[in-house]
TrEMBL record, chain B:
It is found in: Cell membrane; Membrane. This is Cytochrome c-type biogenesis protein CcmE. PANTHER family: CYTOCHROME C-TYPE BIOGENESIS PROTEIN CCME HOMOLOG, MITOCHONDRIAL. It comes from Caldovatus aquaticus. Keywords: Cell membrane, Cytochrome c-type biogenesis, Heme, Iron, Membrane, Metal-binding, Signal, Signal-anchor, Transmembrane, Transmembrane helix. Belongs to the CcmE/CycJ family. Heme chaperone required for the biogenesis of c-type cytochromes. Transiently binds heme delivered by CcmC and transfers the heme to apo-cytochromes in a process facilitated by CcmF and CcmH.
Amino acid sequence: MDATSPIAAAAPRPPRPLHRFAHPGRFLRASGRVLPWLAAAALAVLAVGLAWALAFSPPDWQQGETVRIMYVHVPMAWLAMGGYLALALASAAALVWRHPLADLFARELSPAGAVVTALCLATGSLWGKPMWGTWWVWDARLTSVLVLFFLWLGHAALVRAFDEPERGARAGAILALIGVVNLPIVKFSVDWWNTLHQPASVTRLGAPALHVDILYPLLVCALGFALAFAAVVLARTRAAVMERRIRALELARARREERGAAP
Amino acid sequence: MTRKRRRLYVLLLCALGLGSATALTLTAFRDNLVFFRSPSDVVAEPPPPARAFRLGGLVETGSVERATGPDGRPTVRFRVTDGAHAIPVAYSGVLPDLFREGQGVVTLGHLGADGVFRASEVLARHDETYMPPEVAEALKRAGHWNPAQGGAPPAAGWNTLDPARAAPARSGGS
Protein backbone atom coordinates (compact mmCIF):
# COMPACT_ATOMS: atom_id res chain seq x y z
CA MET A 1 0.00 0.00 0.00
CA ASP A 2 2.44 2.60 1.26
CA ALA A 3 5.17 2.53 -1.37
CA THR A 4 7.23 5.31 0.22
CA SER A 5 7.91 3.36 3.40
CA PRO A 6 10.61 0.69 2.95
CA ILE A 7 9.48 -1.13 6.09
CA ALA A 8 5.94 -1.51 4.80
CA ALA A 9 7.26 -2.80 1.50
CA ALA A 10 9.51 -5.37 3.21
CA ALA A 11 7.00 -6.61 5.77
CA PRO A 12 4.55 -9.35 4.78
CA ARG A 13 1.44 -7.77 3.37
CA PRO A 14 -1.30 -7.38 5.95
CA PRO A 15 -4.61 -8.99 4.97
CA ARG A 16 -6.77 -6.64 2.94
CA PRO A 17 -9.64 -5.18 4.98
CA LEU A 18 -12.14 -6.57 2.49
CA HIS A 19 -10.79 -10.07 2.81
CA ARG A 20 -10.80 -10.10 6.58
CA PHE A 21 -14.55 -10.46 6.55
CA ALA A 22 -14.55 -12.78 3.58
CA HIS A 23 -13.80 -15.66 5.91
CA PRO A 24 -17.24 -17.12 6.67
CA GLY A 25 -16.38 -18.10 10.25
CA ARG A 26 -15.11 -14.65 11.05
CA PHE A 27 -18.18 -13.13 9.37
CA LEU A 28 -20.51 -15.30 11.46
CA ARG A 29 -18.77 -14.33 14.70
CA ALA A 30 -18.65 -10.58 13.92
CA SER A 31 -22.19 -10.38 12.54
CA GLY A 32 -23.54 -12.42 15.46
CA ARG A 33 -22.22 -9.80 17.82
CA VAL A 34 -23.52 -6.87 15.75
CA LEU A 35 -26.96 -8.19 14.82
CA PRO A 36 -28.78 -7.87 18.20
CA TRP A 37 -27.58 -4.30 18.58
CA LEU A 38 -28.54 -3.47 15.01
CA ALA A 39 -32.02 -4.93 15.48
CA ALA A 40 -32.49 -3.13 18.81
CA ALA A 41 -31.33 0.18 17.33
CA ALA A 42 -33.70 -0.28 14.37
CA LEU A 43 -36.67 -0.91 16.69
CA ALA A 44 -35.81 2.05 18.93
CA VAL A 45 -35.28 4.51 16.07
CA LEU A 46 -38.40 3.30 14.24
CA ALA A 47 -40.51 3.60 17.40
CA VAL A 48 -39.40 7.19 17.91
CA GLY A 49 -39.54 8.08 14.21
CA LEU A 50 -42.95 6.59 13.46
CA ALA A 51 -44.54 8.06 16.60
CA TRP A 52 -43.11 11.46 15.71
CA ALA A 53 -44.10 11.20 12.07
CA LEU A 54 -47.58 9.74 12.44
CA ALA A 55 -48.79 11.46 15.61
CA PHE A 56 -46.73 14.52 16.49
CA SER A 57 -45.67 16.10 13.20
CA PRO A 58 -47.92 18.71 11.59
CA PRO A 59 -50.03 18.04 8.49
CA ASP A 60 -49.08 19.65 5.17
CA TRP A 61 -50.76 22.93 4.29
CA GLN A 62 -52.29 21.59 1.07
CA GLN A 63 -52.13 17.79 1.35
CA GLY A 64 -53.38 17.61 4.93
CA GLU A 65 -52.93 14.34 6.80
CA THR A 66 -52.31 12.41 3.57
CA VAL A 67 -48.72 13.69 3.65
CA ARG A 68 -47.97 11.11 6.35
CA ILE A 69 -47.73 8.44 3.64
CA MET A 70 -44.44 10.16 2.81
CA TYR A 71 -42.85 8.88 6.04
CA VAL A 72 -43.02 5.34 4.67
CA HIS A 73 -42.91 6.04 0.93
CA VAL A 74 -39.71 8.10 0.85
CA PRO A 75 -37.60 5.79 3.10
CA MET A 76 -38.72 2.82 0.96
CA ALA A 77 -37.70 4.67 -2.21
CA TRP A 78 -34.28 5.55 -0.76
CA LEU A 79 -33.79 1.95 0.40
CA ALA A 80 -34.82 0.58 -2.98
CA MET A 81 -32.12 2.68 -4.67
CA GLY A 82 -29.45 2.48 -1.96
CA GLY A 83 -30.00 -1.25 -1.66
CA TYR A 84 -29.57 -1.63 -5.41
CA LEU A 85 -26.31 0.29 -5.22
CA ALA A 86 -25.16 -2.17 -2.53
CA LEU A 87 -26.23 -5.05 -4.78
CA ALA A 88 -24.17 -3.63 -7.65
CA LEU A 89 -21.09 -3.17 -5.44
CA ALA A 90 -21.42 -6.70 -4.07
CA SER A 91 -21.83 -8.01 -7.62
CA ALA A 92 -18.67 -6.20 -8.76
CA ALA A 93 -16.77 -7.60 -5.76
CA ALA A 94 -18.06 -11.06 -6.56
CA LEU A 95 -17.10 -10.86 -10.25
CA VAL A 96 -13.69 -9.24 -9.86
CA TRP A 97 -12.35 -10.50 -6.54
CA ARG A 98 -14.43 -13.70 -6.33
CA HIS A 99 -15.39 -12.57 -2.86
CA PRO A 100 -17.19 -15.64 -1.44
CA LEU A 101 -19.53 -13.72 0.84
CA ALA A 102 -20.48 -11.16 -1.80
CA ASP A 103 -22.42 -13.80 -3.76
CA LEU A 104 -24.37 -14.88 -0.71
CA PHE A 105 -25.01 -11.27 0.31
CA ALA A 106 -26.33 -10.40 -3.16
CA ARG A 107 -28.52 -13.49 -3.19
CA GLU A 108 -30.06 -12.62 0.18
CA LEU A 109 -30.33 -8.90 -0.56
CA SER A 110 -32.54 -9.07 -3.63
CA PRO A 111 -35.77 -10.42 -2.05
CA ALA A 112 -35.54 -7.73 0.64
CA GLY A 113 -34.89 -5.11 -2.07
CA ALA A 114 -37.91 -6.34 -4.04
CA VAL A 115 -40.08 -5.97 -0.92
CA VAL A 116 -39.04 -2.36 -0.20
CA THR A 117 -39.47 -1.43 -3.88
CA ALA A 118 -42.94 -3.00 -3.88
CA LEU A 119 -43.80 -1.04 -0.72
CA CYS A 120 -42.53 2.15 -2.36
CA LEU A 121 -44.77 1.53 -5.39
CA ALA A 122 -47.77 0.55 -3.26
CA THR A 123 -47.56 3.53 -0.89
CA GLY A 124 -46.96 5.83 -3.86
CA SER A 125 -50.08 4.51 -5.53
CA LEU A 126 -52.13 5.00 -2.36
CA TRP A 127 -50.78 8.54 -2.13
CA GLY A 128 -51.32 9.30 -5.80
CA LYS A 129 -55.04 8.50 -5.83
CA PRO A 130 -56.19 11.17 -3.35
CA MET A 131 -53.60 13.82 -4.33
CA TRP A 132 -53.04 13.51 -8.08
CA GLY A 133 -56.32 11.80 -8.84
CA THR A 134 -54.86 8.58 -10.21
CA TRP A 135 -53.40 5.31 -8.90
CA TRP A 136 -50.83 5.06 -11.65
CA VAL A 137 -49.48 6.93 -14.66
CA TRP A 138 -46.74 5.89 -17.07
CA ASP A 139 -44.50 8.85 -16.40
CA ALA A 140 -40.70 8.53 -16.33
CA ARG A 141 -40.33 8.32 -12.54
CA LEU A 142 -43.03 5.74 -11.92
CA THR A 143 -42.01 3.63 -14.88
CA SER A 144 -38.30 3.63 -13.99
CA VAL A 145 -39.11 2.56 -10.41
CA LEU A 146 -41.27 -0.24 -11.82
CA VAL A 147 -38.24 -1.30 -13.90
CA LEU A 148 -36.16 -1.23 -10.69
CA PHE A 149 -38.73 -3.55 -9.07
CA PHE A 150 -38.47 -5.97 -12.00
CA LEU A 151 -34.66 -5.87 -11.76
CA TRP A 152 -34.87 -6.87 -8.10
CA LEU A 153 -37.33 -9.67 -8.89
CA GLY A 154 -35.28 -10.79 -11.88
CA HIS A 155 -32.10 -10.95 -9.82
CA ALA A 156 -33.81 -12.90 -7.04
CA ALA A 157 -35.18 -15.39 -9.57
CA LEU A 158 -32.04 -15.67 -11.70
CA VAL A 159 -29.61 -16.51 -8.88
CA ARG A 160 -31.94 -19.31 -7.82
CA ALA A 161 -32.55 -20.67 -11.31
CA PHE A 162 -29.35 -22.74 -11.68
CA ASP A 163 -28.44 -26.12 -10.24
CA GLU A 164 -24.93 -24.88 -9.47
CA PRO A 165 -25.14 -21.85 -7.18
CA GLU A 166 -21.90 -20.39 -8.63
CA ARG A 167 -23.36 -20.08 -12.13
CA GLY A 168 -26.54 -18.50 -10.77
CA ALA A 169 -24.52 -16.03 -8.72
CA ARG A 170 -22.45 -15.03 -11.72
CA ALA A 171 -25.49 -14.54 -13.97
CA GLY A 172 -27.17 -12.53 -11.21
CA ALA A 173 -24.10 -10.35 -10.73
CA ILE A 174 -24.00 -9.51 -14.44
CA LEU A 175 -27.72 -8.67 -14.41
CA ALA A 176 -27.26 -6.49 -11.32
CA LEU A 177 -24.41 -4.55 -12.94
CA ILE A 178 -26.32 -4.02 -16.18
CA GLY A 179 -29.33 -2.84 -14.20
CA VAL A 180 -27.31 -0.17 -12.44
CA VAL A 181 -27.86 2.16 -15.44
CA ASN A 182 -31.43 2.42 -14.20
CA LEU A 183 -30.39 4.10 -10.94
CA PRO A 184 -29.49 7.54 -12.40
CA ILE A 185 -32.61 7.29 -14.56
CA VAL A 186 -34.77 6.83 -11.45
CA LYS A 187 -33.02 9.65 -9.62
CA PHE A 188 -32.95 12.21 -12.44
CA SER A 189 -36.14 11.22 -14.31
CA VAL A 190 -38.00 14.07 -12.61
CA ASP A 191 -35.38 16.58 -13.82
CA TRP A 192 -34.71 15.27 -17.33
CA TRP A 193 -38.31 14.84 -18.41
CA ASN A 194 -41.54 16.39 -17.36
CA THR A 195 -43.38 13.97 -15.11
CA LEU A 196 -46.47 13.91 -12.94
CA HIS A 197 -44.21 13.10 -9.98
CA GLN A 198 -42.75 16.22 -8.35
CA PRO A 199 -38.96 16.83 -8.26
CA ALA A 200 -36.76 15.92 -5.28
CA SER A 201 -37.50 17.74 -2.00
CA VAL A 202 -34.54 16.67 0.16
CA THR A 203 -31.59 15.85 -2.12
CA ARG A 204 -31.58 18.94 -4.26
CA LEU A 205 -29.38 21.99 -4.70
CA GLY A 206 -30.21 24.60 -2.10
CA ALA A 207 -32.21 24.12 1.06
CA PRO A 208 -34.55 21.12 1.47
CA ALA A 209 -38.06 22.15 0.42
CA LEU A 210 -39.58 20.62 3.53
CA HIS A 211 -40.21 22.47 6.74
CA VAL A 212 -38.01 21.08 9.55
CA ASP A 213 -41.12 19.89 11.44
CA ILE A 214 -41.71 17.50 8.51
CA LEU A 215 -38.07 16.94 7.47
CA TYR A 216 -36.70 15.75 10.82
CA PRO A 217 -39.28 13.00 11.45
CA LEU A 218 -38.75 11.92 7.84
CA LEU A 219 -34.99 11.59 8.38
CA VAL A 220 -35.49 9.65 11.64
CA CYS A 221 -37.93 7.29 9.89
CA ALA A 222 -35.48 6.84 7.03
CA LEU A 223 -32.68 5.96 9.47
CA GLY A 224 -34.95 3.52 11.31
CA PHE A 225 -36.07 1.75 8.14
CA ALA A 226 -32.46 1.63 6.90
CA LEU A 227 -31.29 -0.01 10.15
CA ALA A 228 -34.18 -2.50 9.98
CA PHE A 229 -33.35 -3.29 6.34
CA ALA A 230 -29.68 -3.82 7.24
CA ALA A 231 -30.65 -6.09 10.14
CA VAL A 232 -32.94 -8.20 7.93
CA VAL A 233 -30.32 -8.56 5.19
CA LEU A 234 -27.58 -9.38 7.72
CA ALA A 235 -29.76 -12.04 9.36
CA ARG A 236 -30.58 -13.53 5.94
CA THR A 237 -26.90 -13.58 4.95
CA ARG A 238 -25.97 -15.29 8.24
CA ALA A 239 -28.64 -17.89 7.65
CA ALA A 240 -27.34 -18.48 4.13
CA VAL A 241 -23.75 -18.92 5.37
CA MET A 242 -24.89 -21.43 7.98
CA GLU A 243 -27.05 -23.23 5.44
CA ARG A 244 -24.11 -23.58 3.09
CA ARG A 245 -21.95 -24.89 5.95
CA ILE A 246 -24.54 -27.48 6.91
CA ARG A 247 -24.79 -28.60 3.30
CA ALA A 248 -21.00 -28.95 3.09
CA LEU A 249 -20.92 -30.96 6.33
CA GLU A 250 -23.72 -33.24 5.17
CA LEU A 251 -21.98 -33.75 1.86
CA ALA A 252 -18.74 -34.63 3.62
CA ARG A 253 -20.53 -37.11 5.89
CA ALA A 254 -22.31 -38.72 2.96
CA ARG A 255 -18.98 -39.13 1.19
CA ARG A 256 -17.40 -40.65 4.30
CA GLU A 257 -20.26 -43.11 4.68
CA GLU A 258 -20.02 -44.03 1.02
CA ARG A 259 -16.33 -44.65 1.39
CA GLY A 260 -16.93 -46.68 4.57
CA ALA A 261 -19.61 -48.82 2.91
CA ALA A 262 -17.44 -49.54 -0.12
CA PRO A 263 -15.39 -52.76 0.18
CA MET B 1 -3.44 -10.85 -8.93
CA THR B 2 -3.12 -10.13 -12.62
CA ARG B 3 -6.29 -12.10 -13.39
CA LYS B 4 -8.19 -10.07 -10.85
CA ARG B 5 -6.86 -6.89 -12.41
CA ARG B 6 -7.88 -8.14 -15.86
CA ARG B 7 -11.40 -8.92 -14.65
CA LEU B 8 -11.60 -5.45 -13.12
CA TYR B 9 -10.54 -3.82 -16.39
CA VAL B 10 -13.01 -5.90 -18.39
CA LEU B 11 -15.74 -4.89 -15.98
CA LEU B 12 -14.82 -1.21 -16.17
CA LEU B 13 -14.71 -1.38 -19.96
CA CYS B 14 -18.16 -3.01 -20.05
CA ALA B 15 -19.47 -0.32 -17.67
CA LEU B 16 -18.05 2.38 -19.91
CA GLY B 17 -19.65 0.86 -23.01
CA LEU B 18 -22.99 0.27 -21.35
CA GLY B 19 -22.94 3.70 -19.75
CA SER B 20 -22.25 5.56 -22.98
CA ALA B 21 -24.83 3.48 -24.87
CA THR B 22 -27.44 4.37 -22.26
CA ALA B 23 -26.44 8.02 -22.24
CA LEU B 24 -26.76 8.19 -26.04
CA THR B 25 -30.13 6.46 -25.99
CA LEU B 26 -31.42 8.79 -23.30
CA THR B 27 -30.20 11.86 -25.16
CA ALA B 28 -32.03 10.63 -28.25
CA PHE B 29 -35.22 10.10 -26.25
CA ARG B 30 -34.91 13.31 -24.32
CA ASP B 31 -37.56 15.18 -26.28
CA ASN B 32 -39.85 12.21 -26.85
CA LEU B 33 -40.12 10.89 -23.32
CA VAL B 34 -42.39 13.67 -22.14
CA PHE B 35 -45.40 12.85 -20.05
CA PHE B 36 -47.22 16.02 -21.01
CA ARG B 37 -46.79 18.97 -23.40
CA SER B 38 -46.79 22.57 -22.31
CA PRO B 39 -49.01 25.23 -23.92
CA SER B 40 -45.91 26.65 -25.65
CA ASP B 41 -45.14 23.22 -27.17
CA VAL B 42 -48.71 23.00 -28.42
CA VAL B 43 -48.64 26.50 -29.91
CA ALA B 44 -45.27 25.91 -31.57
CA GLU B 45 -46.24 22.52 -32.93
CA PRO B 46 -50.01 22.06 -33.05
CA PRO B 47 -50.95 18.37 -32.83
CA PRO B 48 -53.17 16.86 -35.53
CA PRO B 49 -56.88 17.31 -34.74
CA ALA B 50 -58.57 14.58 -32.69
CA ARG B 51 -55.17 13.28 -31.56
CA ALA B 52 -55.30 12.73 -27.79
CA PHE B 53 -52.38 14.12 -25.81
CA ARG B 54 -51.60 15.42 -22.35
CA LEU B 55 -51.49 19.15 -21.71
CA GLY B 56 -49.69 20.29 -18.57
CA GLY B 57 -49.07 23.61 -16.86
CA LEU B 58 -50.44 25.83 -14.14
CA VAL B 59 -54.11 26.73 -13.72
CA GLU B 60 -54.18 30.41 -14.64
CA THR B 61 -55.18 32.72 -11.79
CA GLY B 62 -58.76 33.95 -12.09
CA SER B 63 -59.60 31.65 -15.01
CA VAL B 64 -61.62 28.95 -13.23
CA GLU B 65 -65.37 28.99 -14.00
CA ARG B 66 -67.51 26.30 -12.46
CA ALA B 67 -70.98 25.39 -13.70
CA THR B 68 -73.36 22.46 -13.74
CA GLY B 69 -73.80 20.75 -17.05
CA PRO B 70 -77.16 19.79 -18.61
CA ASP B 71 -76.72 16.24 -17.29
CA GLY B 72 -76.18 17.53 -13.74
CA ARG B 73 -72.46 16.81 -13.72
CA PRO B 74 -70.18 19.60 -12.59
CA THR B 75 -68.33 21.22 -15.45
CA VAL B 76 -65.36 23.49 -15.17
CA ARG B 77 -63.54 25.75 -17.60
CA PHE B 78 -60.08 27.09 -16.90
CA ARG B 79 -56.91 28.07 -18.70
CA VAL B 80 -53.65 26.14 -18.52
CA THR B 81 -50.61 28.39 -18.76
CA ASP B 82 -46.83 28.06 -18.75
CA GLY B 83 -46.29 31.80 -18.51
CA ALA B 84 -45.78 32.36 -22.24
CA HIS B 85 -48.99 30.87 -23.62
CA ALA B 86 -52.34 29.75 -22.24
CA ILE B 87 -54.84 27.24 -23.59
CA PRO B 88 -58.50 27.11 -22.47
CA VAL B 89 -59.63 23.75 -21.11
CA ALA B 90 -63.13 22.37 -20.66
CA TYR B 91 -63.72 19.43 -18.36
CA SER B 92 -66.74 17.79 -16.88
CA GLY B 93 -66.29 15.49 -13.93
CA VAL B 94 -64.81 15.36 -10.47
CA LEU B 95 -61.60 17.31 -9.95
CA PRO B 96 -58.82 16.10 -7.63
CA ASP B 97 -58.72 17.69 -4.16
CA LEU B 98 -55.57 19.65 -4.93
CA PHE B 99 -57.07 21.42 -7.95
CA ARG B 100 -56.97 25.20 -7.46
CA GLU B 101 -55.76 28.33 -9.21
CA GLY B 102 -51.97 28.41 -9.39
CA GLN B 103 -51.73 24.63 -9.03
CA GLY B 104 -49.99 22.43 -11.58
CA VAL B 105 -52.30 20.17 -13.59
CA VAL B 106 -51.89 17.52 -16.27
CA THR B 107 -54.95 17.04 -18.46
CA LEU B 108 -55.62 14.32 -21.01
CA GLY B 109 -57.81 15.12 -24.00
CA HIS B 110 -57.75 16.62 -27.47
CA LEU B 111 -57.72 20.09 -28.96
CA GLY B 112 -61.01 21.09 -30.56
CA ALA B 113 -61.27 23.12 -33.77
CA ASP B 114 -62.29 26.13 -31.64
CA GLY B 115 -58.97 26.01 -29.80
CA VAL B 116 -60.53 24.68 -26.57
CA PHE B 117 -58.87 21.60 -25.09
CA ARG B 118 -61.57 19.08 -24.17
CA ALA B 119 -60.19 17.12 -21.24
CA SER B 120 -61.39 13.68 -20.25
CA GLU B 121 -59.08 13.52 -17.24
CA VAL B 122 -57.54 16.17 -14.98
CA LEU B 123 -54.68 15.24 -12.64
CA ALA B 124 -53.23 17.60 -10.04
CA ARG B 125 -49.47 18.05 -10.04
CA HIS B 126 -48.17 19.42 -6.75
CA ASP B 127 -44.71 20.88 -6.20
CA GLU B 128 -41.94 19.52 -3.99
CA THR B 129 -42.53 21.82 -1.02
CA TYR B 130 -44.07 20.59 2.23
CA MET B 131 -44.90 22.88 5.15
CA PRO B 132 -47.33 22.99 8.08
CA PRO B 133 -50.48 25.08 7.55
CA GLU B 134 -49.29 27.61 10.16
CA VAL B 135 -46.11 28.32 8.20
CA ALA B 136 -48.09 28.73 4.97
CA GLU B 137 -50.42 31.11 6.77
CA ALA B 138 -47.50 33.12 8.16
CA LEU B 139 -45.96 33.44 4.69
CA LYS B 140 -49.27 34.51 3.18
CA ARG B 141 -49.94 37.01 5.98
CA ALA B 142 -46.50 38.53 5.55
CA GLY B 143 -47.19 38.94 1.85
CA HIS B 144 -44.35 36.69 0.78
CA TRP B 145 -46.51 34.25 -1.06
CA ASN B 146 -49.86 33.98 -2.77
CA PRO B 147 -50.45 30.31 -3.68
CA ALA B 148 -52.80 31.34 -6.50
CA GLN B 149 -49.95 33.25 -8.15
CA GLY B 150 -47.35 30.52 -8.17
CA GLY B 151 -44.99 28.35 -6.21
CA ALA B 152 -43.66 28.86 -2.71
CA PRO B 153 -40.73 31.25 -2.13
CA PRO B 154 -37.19 29.79 -1.84
CA ALA B 155 -37.14 27.10 0.84
CA ALA B 156 -34.22 28.61 2.77
CA GLY B 157 -36.54 31.47 3.73
CA TRP B 158 -39.14 29.35 5.51
CA ASN B 159 -37.98 25.79 6.16
CA THR B 160 -36.86 26.63 9.69
CA LEU B 161 -39.55 29.25 10.32
CA ASP B 162 -41.14 28.83 13.75
CA PRO B 163 -44.89 29.18 13.12
CA ALA B 164 -45.54 29.92 16.82
CA ARG B 165 -43.42 33.04 16.64
CA ALA B 166 -44.23 33.64 12.96
CA ALA B 167 -41.34 36.01 12.39
CA PRO B 168 -41.73 36.92 8.72
CA ALA B 169 -38.59 39.07 8.97
CA ARG B 170 -36.59 35.81 8.66
CA SER B 171 -38.02 34.87 5.31
CA GLY B 172 -35.43 36.77 3.33
CA GLY B 173 -35.31 36.67 -0.41
CA SER B 174 -38.47 36.84 -2.52
